[in-house]
Design goal:
This protein is α/β, with parallel strands linked by helices. The chain has two domains: 286 residues, Rossmann fold (3-Layer(aba) Sandwich), CATH 3.40.50; 174 residues, Rossmann fold (3-Layer(aba) Sandwich), CATH 3.40.50. Helix 15 links the parallel strand 12 and strand 13. Helix 11 crosses helix 12 and helix 11 runs parallel beside helix 16. The radius of gyration is 22 Å and the shape is globular. 45% of the residues are buried. The model has no long low-confidence stretch (mean pLDDT 94). It binds uridine-5'-diphosphate-xylopyranose (UDX). The site of uridine-5'-diphosphate-xylopyranose has 26 residues, from helix 1, helix 13 and helix 14.
Length: 483
């Protein structure tokens, strides 16, 4: 590729998981709308599922400068299960990373990219420490506040605040986290902070990838100034290029609405088949009467926890739409009998589906609340839809997100670390009825701020324009360096 004349070209590479691929495809569509040349690199088996369950090929075919490319992580499309997180990381290091280097050198991905927008969960794929020739923009699919909390982990270990000293230490307020004073208790720190060994490989992995993100040319967040301005300003002191361009799903929708013939349906980028029948069920329910329950794409719960939720939902007396993914419950053999009261309560007031069109569900008139695992995409989707939340966070960023939802943004209740039918029933009634008025003021205000940020002149709109200009400038400089 020597003496090649650089042209605008952005390579986007997401971590192979639903929440990551979803938000990075939205970014790819936004950048394609601006006319930039984009290559979206996907792990084979993920791409295979997208082709099976979505219209991505058709949707992106309208961009002449867009291409999909795939790469292996050592597993074929039908290899199941993918194994432990550490196994996946090892395969990405040993199989995917060298292949990517070859693809870049051989020109198989097209002209040398102006920059690579790399998922910050696997910064090691391009060694940002080694000052790569192609600038890396690290895209963090988590909230800015949880990313900022990740960055304090080494300091908390050094101060002796980590490891957490047992259950009695969980409600201690964590000190010394600039921009998050008096907000986080130990139980609100990212889940890997609960590990007893500060040198545990999972914890150290997060520490390393976070540190590497700061070394990247730029940091991108799916968030907006009015939501996380305080943390963003701290982040900007450590990295001069921070772009806050979210909520991406709302941003894309807003920009598409200005197109001549915008796509008719919401884009799902789903790795599962979307079951739209629940929308028909919702059509038959009264306004704001249904609580939508979804624990995202990764959370797995025990059968006992599943039953507590089920009892709680039925006991609440409210209508519910529950997303029960085929792999949501660990070790479920289908042999356990379902008590009559659960069967009848569900027949009367409930609906269960395997995978829902979540954004449309949340926007449906019948939805009055959202019981969520606090994944960042789900949190933003609930926020934009103006739906109050109940949070049951399970891992990584979710513990911090749920604290911000309940204590900072005040748009929901935090059910962290509790899972019994009485609490579930009580919180459902609180969100749907008893504490609804108290929550709805900030819920509506936050939804408005989110929408304003992505409209022309809004903070996320302007940050995306700035990012596109910066990419073009980078390309111009690369050209000048060759001339
Ligand atoms: C996890 C993390 O918690 C998240 O913060 C991180 O950014 C990515 O990994 P996940 O469990 O996938 O994510 O949750 P979430 O980030 O909420 O993403 C799930 C996505 O799947 C959402 O966009 C949601 O709309 C979609 N979804 C979920 C559906 O389309 N239908 C469903 O039935 C359930």
């Amino acid at each position: 590729m020597e003496n090649e004349k650089p042209e605008h070209h952005v390579l986007i590479f997401p971590f192979p998981a639903q929440g990551h691929v979803n938000s990075m495809l939205k970014l790819a569509e936004l950048l394609s709308l601006s006319g930039l040349r984009i290559t979206f690199l996907n792990i084979h088996r993920i791409h295979h599922k997208l082709i099976l369950h979505t219209d991505i090929q058709f949707r992106f075919s309208r961009f002449p400068n867009f291409q999909f490319q795939t790469i292996t992580d050592g597993l074929s499309a039908d290899n199941r299960p993918i194994g432990k997180f550490s196994d996946l990381i090892n395969r990405l290091k040993s199989v995917t990373k060298p292949l990517l280097m070859q693809m870049l050198v051989s020109g198989q991905l097209g002209p040398t990219p102006t920059c690579i927008i790399l998922d910050g969960l696997f910064n090691f794929i391009i060694d940002v420490d080694a000052e790569p020739k192609i600038p890396v923009f690290s895209f963090r699919t988590i909230s800015a506040c949880s990313f900022w909390a990740y960055s304090f982990v080494p300091k908390l270990i050094e101060d002796g605040q980590l490891p957490i000293k047992g259950e009695e230490d969980m409600d201690r307020i964590v000190d010394g986290m600039a921009g998050m004073e008096n907000i986080l208790r130990c139980r609100d720190l990212p889940s890997f902070c609960r590990l007893e060994d500060p040198f545990d490989p999972t914890l150290q992995y997060s520490v390393t990838q976070t540190r590497k993100s700061f070394k990247a040319h730029a940091l991108i967040f799916n968030t907006f100034e009015d939501l996380e301005g305080s943390v963003l300003s701290h982040l900007r002191r450590r990295c001069s290029n921070v772009y806050a361009i979210g909520p991406l799903h709302a941003h894309l929708k807003s920009r598409l609405s200005g197109e001549e013939s915008p796509p008719a349906l919401e884009s799902y980028n789903s790795l599962w088949e979307v079951d739209r029948s629940c929308l028909t069920w919702l059509d038959a329910q009264p306004s704001k009467s249904v609580i939508y329950v979804s624990f995202g794409s990764v959370v797995v719960m025990g059968d006992d926890q599943f039953r507590e939720f089920w009892h709680g939902l039925v006991d609440s007396g409210k209508r519910f739409l529950w997303l029960v993914r085929s792999n949501l419950v660990a070790g479920k053999d289908g042999e356990n009998e379902v008590p009559t009261e659960l069967e009848e309560g569900t027949k009367e007031r409930g609906c269960m589906v395997g995978w829902a069109p979540q954004v449309e569900v949340l926007a449906h008139e019948a939805i009055g609340g959202f019981l969520t695992h606090s994944g960042w995409n789900s949190t933003l989707e609930g926020m934009v839809a103006g739906v109050p939340m109940i949070c049951w966070p399970q891992f990584a960023d979710q513990q911090t997100n749920s604290r911000y939802v309940s204590e900072v943004w005040r748009i929901g209740l935090d059910m962290k670390d509790v899972c019994d039918r009485e609490t579930v029933a009580k919180m459902v009634n609180d969100v749907m009825e008893n504490r609804r008025n108290e929550l709805m003021g900030s819920v509506i205000e936050t939804a408005k701020l989110a929408m304003t940020s992505v409209e022309e002149g809004g903070s996320s709109y302007c940050d995306l324009e700035r990012m596109i200009d910066d990419i073009q400038l980078l390309c111009q400089r690369q050209r000048e360096a060759i001339d």
